[in-house]
Design goal:
The protein is α/β, with parallel strands linked by helices and about 350 residues long. It folds into two domains: about 160 residues, P-loop containing nucleotide triphosphate hydrolases (Rossmann fold, 3-Layer(aba) Sandwich); about 100 residues, GMP Synthetase, Chain A, domain 3 (2-Layer Sandwich). It has eleven helices and eleven strands. The strands form three sheets. The protein has a six-stranded mixed β-sheet, with helices on both faces. Strands 9-10-11 form a three-stranded mixed β-sheet. Strand 5 and strand 6 form a beta hairpin. Helix 7 runs antiparallel to helix 10. The protein is globular, with a radius of gyration of 23 Å. The protein starts with 15 loop residues before the first strand and ends in a 5-residue tail after the last helix. The structure holds guanosine-5'-diphosphate (GDP) and magnesium ion (MG). The site of guanosine-5'-diphosphate has 20 residues, from helix 1.
Length: about 350
């Protein structure tokens, strides 16, 4: 045996590839985190709930892995057709993933919305032998359950023996076709009070029934590398699914519209963020300049007046901010023209939503 074949001779690490769904309430930092993980801005960010309106794919590629992250619109009670389309996107994101990552704002205790999401997620969460078991009636994990029993339950589920189903009255609690491992990302640790760490961490672990978590700060980038390491443990071996320079499945056109919307969300408040949509109507390359014409839709004349501002100042500022980011995105100089139109009830109109690419 040649002596260079020792036990620690460097074997190339197996290439990993997989899909991770980011799930959580609006405004907890899912999009900020996604941008960090991908290393590029793929999802717009603001402090307004429901900033993300449709599923966004962000792809992180390195020599030995490729991970596709799905950023979902928050799961919440839909009141409008747009809201329903957003929830639908979040649900379909759960149809085929290797890992579910529940993102939350750790500076706050879980509220009703967290409990509702946990209830929705429960049927999708894989119960592996390391974990305790679910007390299905109470919807809580039973920490006293012996491990052997939990392994047996997992086995029964795998073999599709409906061992539990008779004792579970609510059909929603029954396992669907697919189950996924769950990882908790406890975000906004930078604003978590030191005396609340234990209480808050325990509350989320109990709610979601796992102790697999990482505290992060997406805005500061703290622990995002450690989070990535944890994610990688769940990723199966396999080849890349996307080209190595691909970082999203969104078109430059759609992302440009999103960047305009982001600047509006960041600069306005109250009803304007929800009443606004942006559509790129025209995209033309002239000489070495990309000429983009986009329309901003609002629902009321008063909203239009605010967005245009005195002597058009407001619109001009939005335009400049968005243009700079679009130029970075496409790596070209841009001429951005913005128009504001009133279109009553666009959120209720399926044709408009389709045109805006918010629904399929
Ligand atoms: N303090 C703090 N703020 C954060 C953190 N991550 C995100 N945010 C802020 O929270 C708001 C919502 O972020 P966003 O990524 O849009 O949340 P999403 O709705 O879950 O996608 C924005 O104002 C972010 O700047 C964090 O780690 N710490
Ligand atoms: Mg978002």
């Amino acid at each position: 045996m040649p002596d260079n074949l020792t036990a620690d001779s460097a074997e190339p690490k197996a290439h990993k590839a997989g899909v991770v769904a980011l799930i959580g309430k609006p405004n907890v930092g899912k999009s900020t985190l996604l941008n960090h993980l991908v290393g590029q801005k793929v999802s717009i960010v603001s402090n307004k709930p429901q900033t993300t309106r449709r599923r966004v794919l962000g792809i992180a590629t390195a020599i030995d892995y490729q991970i596709a992250f799905i950023d979902t619109p928050g799961i919440h009670e839909p009141h409008t057709r747009l809201g329903r389309a957003m929830v639908e996107q979040a649900r379909t994101a759960l149809s085929d993933v290797d890992l579910m990552m529940y993102v939350t704002d750790i500076s706050r205790m879980p509220n009703e919305e967290d409990k509702e999401i946990a209830r929705l997620l429960k049927p999708f969460i894989a119960r592996n032998s390391e974990e305790g078991t679910w007390n299905s009636e109470l919807g809580e994990r039973n920490p006293k359950a012996p491990k052997a029993e939990s392994a047996a339950k997992a086995k029964a589920k795998k073999a599709k023996v409906p061992a539990e189903s008779k004792s579970v009255p609510n059909s929603e609690l029954r396992a669907p076709n697919s189950e996924f491992p769950l990882l908790l990302c406890l975000n906004k640790m930078d604003i978590l009070r030191a005396d609340q760490v234990v209480e808050h961490v325990e509350a989320y672990c109990k709610l979601l029934g796992t102790e697999d978590y990482m505290l992060t700060s997406a805005t500061k980038g703290s622990n995002v590398d450690k989070l990535l390491e944890m994610i990688l443990k769940y990723m199966p071996e396999g080849p890349s699914m996307y080209a190595e320079d691909e970082f999203t499945d969104q078109s430059s056109r759609f992302m440009s519209a999103e960047l305009v919307r982001e600047k509006i969300l960041q600069a306005t408040r109250q009803e304007i963020p929800h009443a606004t949509a942006v559509l790129v109507e025209d995209w033309e390359v002239k000489d070495d300049l990309v000429h983009i014409r986009a329309t901003i839709f609002v629902e009321k004349t008063s909203q239009r007046a605010i967005l245009i501002g005195k002597h058009g100042e407001f619109l001009k500022r939005i335009g400049t901010q968005a243009r700079l980011e679009i130029e970075t995105l496409i790596g070209n100089r841009v001429y951005l023209e913005l128009f504001v139109k009133v279109r009553l009830d666009w959120r209720m109109d399926p044709r408009v939503l389709q045109e805006l690419e918010y629904s399929e």
